[in-house]
Structure formats: structure tokens, C-alpha cells
Design goal:
heterodimer; A: alpha/beta; eight-stranded parallel beta sheet; two-stranded antiparallel sheet; about 40% helix; B: about 270 residues; about 50% helix
Chain lengths: ~290, ~270
Amino acid sequence: MAIQGIGLGLRGEFMTDLLGTERVIDWLEIIPENWLNVGGIRGRQFDQCAERWAMVPHSISMSIGGPDPLDVELFDAVTALCHRVHAPFWSDHICFSVAKDTQFNDLFPLPFSSEALDRVCQRVEEARRLTDVPLVFENPTYYVPMPGANMTEAEFFTQIFAHTGAGFLLDVNNVFVNAKNHGFDAEQFIDALPLEAVRQIHLAGHATFADAIIDTHGGPVADAVWALYRYTLKRAGRMIPTLIEWDSQIPPFAHVADEVDRARHEARVALAGADSSTLLSKSASNTEAA
Amino acid sequence: MNLADVQETMHDFVIGRVPHHQACRQLGFSADSTEGQRLKIWRRAYAFMFDDNAKTLFPVTRKVFVSVAGEPAWSSLVERLGTESPPDDVCFASAGLVERLADEKLGVPAWVPELADFELAERRVFLAPDVSRPAEFDACAIRIAAPLLLRRYSFDVFAVRNAPDPTQVAPKQAAIAVAIWRHPDGTRRSMCLTATGARVLATLNNGGIEALEALAAANAAMQRRCIEALRKFLSVSLIQGCLPSHGIFAGLAEADDHGTGACDTESSHCTGH
């Protein structure tokens, strides 16, 4: 089931409110590790969400650049989940998140090196033998560049998508955070990316600390990130399905839904003059048509 | 430094097996540099993830532990667990706390590890996949609630749980009787009985009713209490239906509070309906 418009990351904290809302949420992104084999009331709520919204799994433990073998059980389970919810693709991150059997629940950067590039490309091929679901990968944040780099971050991602043909999940907040932490120009970075490969965009809040800006997903999207989002859509020249992530310090659902509305507004502003019908959610289109 | 070395260094540093200065040296920057300071972000995130998971899995145990031993002791315990037992399952990252509490001399009451074990079981039950039920269950409108309805923890829980075969042990006469055991097929089963209030007979997994019947059949005292409780359920219309083959050993009830944070009872207090 294709996704369009503005989606929201499904979190247990606001699931009941989400199911009762009349606010326009176009689709949901789910962290599959949290929903595999879950029954009871949570499982029933999940099923209700799946009936109402298109869903896209966004995992954190594929560890496509990791040292451990790919987890066949994870692939089987997430593939089955993708089929169950008719997901258009399955996304994860260009990183490693599992090592020595340890599940970090975090994303560790790879060196921007030829060795890591080869590793990722080879593993994407391996992953495709384990699932028939199209794969999409996100650019993560990194607070420290890993040693061994022999290319830029943008070159690293560009080559991965060129060699593998995988889809690109562009996290605009991550670009902003990395640009601030490492002192590069975020717009120039966007310019250097293969925007034609982007299947989805992520937006989230971050927090500023003494030693770095951290991608916390714990607040509203910053104004500077909204600006970078508009820039990205203008550069892409098309609406790209966009997701609001809010994973910590989760406020009442209405606040999260406000961010979804804001994303819809920002997309309209960015693409003013473009084919505006691509911006509208199915629900909003129907409303306006009526 | 090749990719494998980078990843090994990151792993060992983040879980706390390699000190900061050594990890920085291996990764090629000084501990005092911006990179060196930022490297700590991942270590802190790992510790936070572990602590957060422990709070989720063991909310009551944590409360008890902190009240007895203090917050620093809890933090230290969880941090050591993260270093020595890194998780292979994110949802249950801190599950090793049960054994750690049992193994170490931590100055907490002996029943605290049992409480932790019970909380862990509850969480697993809460997240467990649904099991298929015979069609006749739905026809009779019988609903089996998960065993998440405990009003208070008590040693009844542990006395029964520790028995080699709890179906052969008479629980102490108390307001609440709970049986939790692992079936030979590996499934966790439990039940909660009380004759003093409108409590549900809570069973878990296929065969729960049969297990309940077996328990009742094997123990006259339990059977009496069970029936008394069910009569109360009937009197307040908490039992909606019964399978003829199962007598009255099943029902739908409401819970008015929880022993722990997990709840899957479809009761008004937790669903808002």
C-alpha cells in the first residue's frame, strides 16, 4: 500500500488517542521490533491501526553495516509483518546496531570508507535474499566520525544508493544535526545527495547540549529544520512522504498531531506553484472535494 | 584501523568494558578532544536505555530496591548489568536483573528477586502473542484475562511459585492466592484466586482452564475457594458465560487496581471505556 502525505511514528503512549482522533494522519510508521508477536490489548490496537492507516516498518536492528550475520529470524518476522500490513517497503539505517550479539537499540555510524561501502552493498544483496520487501535506508546521525574515511558522507550515501538501488529515507533533522556538529553546510549536503532516490523524509526534534546537538526525537521540529525541509522539497521538486518522529518526552497526542499539520503546511509552502494535489492527504482531498 | 576493529572498539566501550581513554586512543583521538567528549554520548545512551528498560520491566521492584538500598545502588546495579550482560533482546534488555538480584548480596529482602521474577513474567505475558482459542469460547462469551490483576504482592505468590509442582500444593489461606509455574511445554502459566473480592480467575495460554481444573481437582481447599470466588463473580455479573465442559472455572472480571504497570484486562480503568 503506497504512502503519501504526512505520517506519524506509532507510539504506545498515544495509541488510544490516535485511534479515537479525527485529526488527519495519512499513514503510520512502526518500529517492527516493538510489535512483533505482540498480543493482548496492544496487539488489538495495532490491528485497528493497521485497518485504518497504511503502515511502513522502520526497524533499528537490521544492522546492515554490522559485523554479525544478518538476523534471519528478524527478516522472517518483519517480512511477514510487512506482508500483513501491505507495507510498500521496509526501512532501516545505514549503520551498525548489533555487534557480538549485543542489541544496542542505538545506531552507530560506519566509517565513510570503501571498506564500509563494500560491506553495506554486499549485505544489502544478502538482505534481499532474505526478504522480498523493498528496502530503504536512512542517513543516521553521528557524533564522532569513525576513523578510516576516504570519502565524504554524501559520497558514501550516494554510492550506496547507486550500487544497491535501495531507496533512501532522508532524515532532514539528522542532516541538520550532523551539519551543526561537524561544521558543514546542510543545504550543500542536501544538494550532493541523490534526491531522486528518496522515498521518505523524517522530521524530528533535537536538543542542544554542551558537547553536541543530539537527535533526541523528544520535542517539536526546530524552525531551522523546517527551513531545511522546505529547501529539500524545493530541490526535489516533488512532495515526498514525510514522517514526524516523536519518541521521548511524548506530549499529549494533540501536540504531536499539530506537528503533522505543520509538516503539511510547510510542504505546501515549499511546493507552492508545484502540483499541489500531490501534497494533500487522501482525507484532506476528500474534504476539499466535498 | 579497519571496520571490524572500529566496531569492536565501539562495542566494548559502549557497554563499559573498555575505558574511555583507551577507546579514544584506539579510535585515533585524544580523550579531551571534542571527539573524545562526544564519544561518551553513545555510552550514556546505552546506560539510559538499560535503566529505562529496567524501570519498565521492574517498576515495583525498583521502588522496593531504592527504598531499601537507595537510588545510587540501583543505578550501579543496572550499570553493572549492562556491562556484564549486554542484551540480545531490546524489549527485555534488563531481564538479567532477576538473576542478579538473586545471586548478589545486595541487602534487599529475599523476596525481592521473586518480585522481580514475577514482574518480568507479567511483562512477558503482557506482550505475549495471542493464542488461538476454541470457537466455543467466543460462542459462550467467555473471556480469559491475563494474570495481571494482582492487588498486592504477597508471599503467597512465592510459596506457590517455588513449589516443584504447584498443582499439588495447597496455598496458604490468604486473601489472594496466586500460582505461577512453567508448564513442561515451556509456557508460563499462572492464576490468581481470591475469595474476598471480585477477582478474576486469571489463566494464561492454551490449557489454562484445564490447569485450573486440575489444580482445583487436586486440592479441595483451593476448589472451595475457587467456587466461592466464582459465586461472587456470578453474583455481581462478572461471569458472562461458561463452557459446560469447564464448569464455572472461567469468567470475565473487572480489576480495580494492579500490582504492577502491566494490564491487559479490557477493564474500564485501563481502556477508558
